[in-house]
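ugh ok so i messed up the first submission bc i forgot one of the chains. this is the corrected input, ALL of the components this time, i swear. 1600 residues overall. if the numbers dont match what u have on ur side tell me asap before i send this to the collaborators (the ones from the other lab, u know who)
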Amino acid sequence: MIQHTVLAVTDTLPDAYQRVRSWTGQICASLETEDYVVQPAADISPPKWHLGHTTWFWETFVLVPHQPQYRIFHDDFSFVFNSYYESVGRRVLRTQRGNLSRPTVAEVYRYRAYVDEAMTRFLSTQELTPELRNLIELGLNHEQQHQELLITDIKYMLGHNPLFPEIEMPVNEHRMDQPTLPVKLPEGVYTIGHQTESGGFCFDNELGAHKVYLNGATLSGQLVTNADYLEFIDAGGYQQFQHWLSDGWAWVKANQIEAPLYWHRLDGQWHAYTFAGLQPVDPDLPVCHVSYYEADAYARWRGLRLPTEAEWEAAAVDAGGHHLAWGLRWEWTGSAYLPYPGFTTAEGAVGEYNGKFMSGQMVLRGASVATPEGHSRPTYRNFFQPDKRWQYTGIRLAVS
Amino acid sequence: MIQHTVLAVTDTLPDAYQRVRSWTGQICASLETEDYVVQPAADISPPKWHLGHTTWFWETFVLVPHQPQYRIFHDDFSFVFNSYYESVGRRVLRTQRGNLSRPTVAEVYRYRAYVDEAMTRFLSTQELTPELRNLIELGLNHEQQHQELLITDIKYMLGHNPLFPEIEMPVNEHRMDQPTLPVKLPEGVYTIGHQTESGGFCFDNELGAHKVYLNGATLSGQLVTNADYLEFIDAGGYQQFQHWLSDGWAWVKANQIEAPLYWHRLDGQWHAYTFAGLQPVDPDLPVCHVSYYEADAYARWRGLRLPTEAEWEAAAVDAGGHHLAWGLRWEWTGSAYLPYPGFTTAEGAVGEYNGKFMSGQMVLRGASVATPEGHSRPTYRNFFQPDKRWQYTGIRLAVS
Amino acid sequence: MIQHTVLAVTDTLPDAYQRVRSWTGQICASLETEDYVVQPAADISPPKWHLGHTTWFWETFVLVPHQPQYRIFHDDFSFVFNSYYESVGRRVLRTQRGNLSRPTVAEVYRYRAYVDEAMTRFLSTQELTPELRNLIELGLNHEQQHQELLITDIKYMLGHNPLFPEIEMPVNEHRMDQPTLPVKLPEGVYTIGHQTESGGFCFDNELGAHKVYLNGATLSGQLVTNADYLEFIDAGGYQQFQHWLSDGWAWVKANQIEAPLYWHRLDGQWHAYTFAGLQPVDPDLPVCHVSYYEADAYARWRGLRLPTEAEWEAAAVDAGGHHLAWGLRWEWTGSAYLPYPGFTTAEGAVGEYNGKFMSGQMVLRGASVATPEGHSRPTYRNFFQPDKRWQYTGIRLAVS
Amino acid sequence: MIQHTVLAVTDTLPDAYQRVRSWTGQICASLETEDYVVQPAADISPPKWHLGHTTWFWETFVLVPHQPQYRIFHDDFSFVFNSYYESVGRRVLRTQRGNLSRPTVAEVYRYRAYVDEAMTRFLSTQELTPELRNLIELGLNHEQQHQELLITDIKYMLGHNPLFPEIEMPVNEHRMDQPTLPVKLPEGVYTIGHQTESGGFCFDNELGAHKVYLNGATLSGQLVTNADYLEFIDAGGYQQFQHWLSDGWAWVKANQIEAPLYWHRLDGQWHAYTFAGLQPVDPDLPVCHVSYYEADAYARWRGLRLPTEAEWEAAAVDAGGHHLAWGLRWEWTGSAYLPYPGFTTAEGAVGEYNGKFMSGQMVLRGASVATPEGHSRPTYRNFFQPDKRWQYTGIRLAVS
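and heres the new structure output, hopefully the right one now
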């Protein structure tokens, strides 16, 4: 079973810090210098930026306020590597990140080493308050989120290069799991959300375990496969407005969408870009890189629907003796990303973490083959705009 | 008490048809010919278009399929007056509606008279099947929706004219109601949605009465007033990112928003455009013409929140002896517009009515001073994108 | 022969004023009220706006400064009807002109009548200084320019209406003239520009008669006809980048251009919208409503070129015994619109008239069937951006 | 005196090839790998792209058609490194060049080495036809054009980086020359354009020496300096519409322009980015990095004007015993970029070289501190859109 926290049972904080930071480096191990720099779309950040930004997080939120003798590495890096924190000063516009050749990759790695050394010293010599421990656990989880983004951003960059380069990447894109039986949820009251007494880390948006009333549903025991999805394509699904949300249909037309992201039809056969280059689409794999619009249209075309996030969580935790197997794809739910009852934001910059994005996005549940170990749990609420599909997103069907 | 259906108890269908159609004309009674033509923004439709489109609805969905000897008024009007029905052929792009000087207003009124005569004959000489009665009731409600849009679109057009014209309009924009006591909803299971057995019309999106679990809330007995809202403005609410959703803050900055729609500061005093021209803002009136972003930011600035649509409906129907007074403003809820359990779309063009808009919009509940009589009920689900504010929208606060 | 000035030999100023103002009304005589209001593209102004703007010109530049007891008609009309004069205060953005239903058409006509009465009194009771006479002559020519724009803007509005309305318009779109022999210009020095001593009105951009050296050219005695141009279309001219300027090719692709403006292929036959409705394209008429990009591409496809403005003027005035017949189409030249040697702008708002547009536009020479009588002369420099084609533009070929 | 051709008197073709290609490498000698990749604006190309594109030129136009046994380096590089040649197949959109991390810089240098070796062999073993010699000379000049773009693109990239990096670059940005006396051109006939009999390379757009009539002008013997230009800024030149072309004023407002490119006011003092980092503006240097709009506005503010290209060339060649000193800045002229009399385009891809850009651009004359040695001559016609200013552009004034 997946270990549902970044801090393994036996971990000390310095060990966990070292393990997480090291994984970021392993993801980038096979990159060429040039690969660190490029931003082929506004949503994509250059790997160099991820490396700097996660480091800036430690420097800004841990070392500067809590380590009195700490000297910051470079005066201008805060400007360069701040992401969206309005409370922490100016920042390079997100769309401009790919315009910066400097600092160089080597400098960014020096920055990482400098901060790592300071952090290691800080973590080993301090008796940490609970608040500080929480902050550090947040930082580790923040870095893990960027690890998954690193993978998907690198894939986007290379997958949009006409040379379709191959690269070593510690992600098993071909993983398949045994399907389970469908999970039947009888009508009734369920509890969802993170149960604080159970311990373990969670983000603020998972807090507030609360009751929901489910009107009864059955969730498929397996994800929609490429073979399933090809039937939709072959039946003309992308040409028929009936299956689509109005916004989705506008998106299809404006972007001339006719297949999942990374798919190309070569000599009559569908191929998909993977880290091993362009490969024929494997019919048995769960479909990947679909938007919410596509997931919703596919479900409607089948006469079915997507599960809500509450149904998903109920089915993932325990449901009459068995539960969903999950973790291959981020699964689009039919739920908008909105606050749980009693949700409040923390004071200061950390409070900008999740709450301010609760508009215009849909919830995804589960995890994907690109999710770092120890960074998934059934209460995790991931979220993206309905047109986004560069994450490892997939489809699970439900019926009332 | 508001009559919760377009068909009054004593109405025959021909009477109801005549009454509803006539009200459309009364809304336009004081317009100049020029006022029928203009489209000052993509969301706004020229009054002429509303008059033609609602007429086209009757012609296309009732007369053509069900009245064999009916001859359509003009071959090209379907192209001109179709709105968004993908299944009914080509249409003038929404943004181009204001580019059409022809057909003239007089022709459109002839079109209305022609169709009204045919409809009146049809309704009085036929024994209508239940399906046809339902279709006609849908048509009446459809026309009522456009009546409210007529009013708000006319207001937008005149309120953006540098001459700020006064006009007679059968809307009491200054109506105030007695506030009620707050409504306290204890934690527990509630039922929301249209109860079919209770009879009366509803839209497809209200169908499927179902249980929800509410975690306990208290809803304010009165709407936020202009005086309340001015405190937010004076406290710098529009200049402080902390209160805003990320999308909302981007909207504020991009559009330089600093007050509700139609507000202008003249010689240091806030004025608002009304059908009586520019008037000083009345502090006692419920605030009007705010977006979801503003409603949400205001609530957060107060340390409170917006009610969910389930809370709103529970409080509107009956809640321990009393219920909310509502009907002055469309009240933004904190709920995204999504399908109820078991929601399905009808076959054909009518099926495009509501379901395909279930993405990217927020639910508003209640009704407004511009809502036609007989067109409101506690289960009604109105919906708009979170930046829209040309409807008579307002704010009610809730607390857990 | 065309009378080359707005002031006919026998005209008094009051007569000329009355005659020009009256012609504006005749152009609009068959319009429906709705036709006055619409702005289907940014370049097009609603007829109502032209009527108001030309009136505002007289009020602002003649009556207010020179008629002490004059009282302006309406305080806000300056804001509404100013066009681009930066020195005369705020103005409604050009793209917003079609959003204004008020002032009504009737009010605008009252405004015209009010100003006409004041102007008539002013012109008949004053001994006018030469400066004032010049200003009034400028105003008359300004109104004539808007007369041609009125015609072309009305055509654009009706020609983009799916009903393709017919309308009475005092323009003979089917006029054909006898072609002349080609005009051969031997190499040598020529003089172009308005010769002040010859008298008569001209715009500031024509002033400064000066010598140019022409390297020898022959200009066609007739304009390119529809039959000629259809050969270009049929030969795939719109599909072959070779003939096009880089900007022109981008324009063709972005706008999917495949024929002149107003052309539609119905049942395999090309039709063009005229004020008599959609009509089969007459092969003998000079091609009309082409952009500079199209004119240039057509010429290159023929292995020829467009004349320069100096060549055109030399050939129009006198060239070895005969000269060009012109006046059916505004003829694109291969010359950019730039100042003549010694060009200077006048002080004040009138100085904004022509000079500030000397960037990014091409010169057209001649006149068209829509040009008012008395508003053309061989030195006239018309100018538009190279993609514009809603004027009555045509093509004359030249060869070195 | 500047050597007016890439082929020095003593050069053999292989020597010239080697010298030019080597200079490209010297320009890039101090770049970090990351600097090769970035495209901070649509007009800017990544250095990597310039290196590849110039190499692709040799491969595509010389080796593939003329060296039978040549094998192309990589099948997909044509797609990656084609620029705008419509006749040579698909190409990466210009705006996407910065999205490509691959091929790597090392691969591109291998590509250069591979092609250089093949070219060297080709040049030394062949008896070249005159056509081939011309093609190779065109290729050398093409590469030199990209050398100047390399310098200006690198400056743009680094000058828009918040770290304002310093870099070694073989450009003397601080070069100043002795001013000359003003050059007075009497009215009369002059000849401009490349005189074929004089020998030496020129581009197709310079061909066709022909007579022009100049109406008399005096050109300043020195360029406008930073001190001069600061007077314009300090007098409010950027805030006063009167001095600006209409398009220029729109550009100033839309882009909030208030100084030349690269200028920043720090603590009340103007600084400019140079390859030596941010430096205080040197009042004695010729102003640099101004657009045509700025050059024109400055001249008008002084009550003067820009020279035409014919005036410039006449004054640069010989004018009553002395001539202009030039070469520090590309000097904006008041002439639009249009064909000379008799201009024709060559067949095939090479014919796309210059002619298709003859729309919407202004001519610049002279050369700049970034122009490669041997790549300038008085007949050279450079051209850019009027808002462009990332080249080393400057201002020379004229008076009639």
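quick check: The two ends of chain A are 29 Å apart (CA to CA). that seems consistent at least. Chain A has two domains: 13-159, 183-399.
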